[in-house]
Specification:
The protein is an all-alpha fold. It is built from eleven helices and no strands. The longest helix has 27 residues. This is TetR/AcrR family transcriptional regulator.
């Protein structure tokens, strides 16, 4: 029978050290910033340099580029879902929670990161699918609460929301990101005001779902 001392030693060894967790978080933060600035092909040693860690530390946490990109995308989705959840807990107001999700998504540069899912690695990886499901369920739940409260127009879906956030947070061609940032939340707020019920116009078509976004474009 294993002694309690041996069990305690095993658990102590298995638990990541605080500095190791901080290093991992610094790597993910630096990677997100550089992916947004330079795209997914930025050299990994440059990411390590910005994070203030050695190359060996980066590769110990993320054995290849796909693993790092996946972790960054999952981290962004988790943080945006958490922002909506915290807003709902703090205010009890579903539309306020939805607004916080939209603004946080823009700050996380979802428009720059989401295309990586389609082009750089397995978009069906279990970690990515789990993070995506958490985000979609959280946002759909908040949208439904806002509809039930008469705050959100009934003819919009999660897909509508994701498309709008992605498009509005992407700088127009020929502009500099830093210069456009100061307009970003202003334009997002205009969009959010358009979501409020009662609706002032009838939207063409039907609400866009997440499944609609995943269907391949017709050839």
């Amino acid at each position: 029978m294993e002694s309690s001392t041996a069990t305690a030693v095993r658990r102590k060894v298995a638990r990541p050290r605080a500095d190791a967790l901080r290093n991992r978080e610094r790597i993910v933060t630096a990677a997100r910033e550089m992916f947004v600035e330079f795209g997914p092909e930025v050299p990994l040693d440059e990411i390590a340099r910005r994070a203030g860690v050695g190359n060996a530390t980066l590769y110990r946490n993320f054995p290849d580029r796909d693993a790092l990109v996946r972790e960054v995308v999952c981290s962004v989705m988790d943080r945006t879902a958490l922002a909506a959840e915290v807003a709902l807990t703090e205010t009890g107001d579903a539309f306020e929670a939805l607004s916080r999700f939209v603004h946080t998504s823009a700050d996380e540069r979802v428009s720059a990161l989401c295309p990586m899912v389609q082009s750089t690695f397995d978009k069906h990886h279990p970690d990515l699918e789990a993070a995506r499901e958490r985000l979609e369920e959280q946002v759909e739940g908040i949208m439904q609460r806002a509809r039930d409260a008469g705050q959100l127009r009934p003819d919009v879906g999660v897909g509508d929301l994701m498309i709008a956030v992605s498009q509005l947070s992407r700088p127009p061609a020929g502009t500099q990101c830093a210069g456009v940032d100061r307009f970003l939340h202003r334009h997002l707020q205009l969009f959010l005001d358009g979501l409020r019920a009662p609706a002032r116009s009838e939207l063409p078509g039907t609400p866009v779902t997440v499944e609609d976004l995943r269907r391949p474009c017709p050839s």
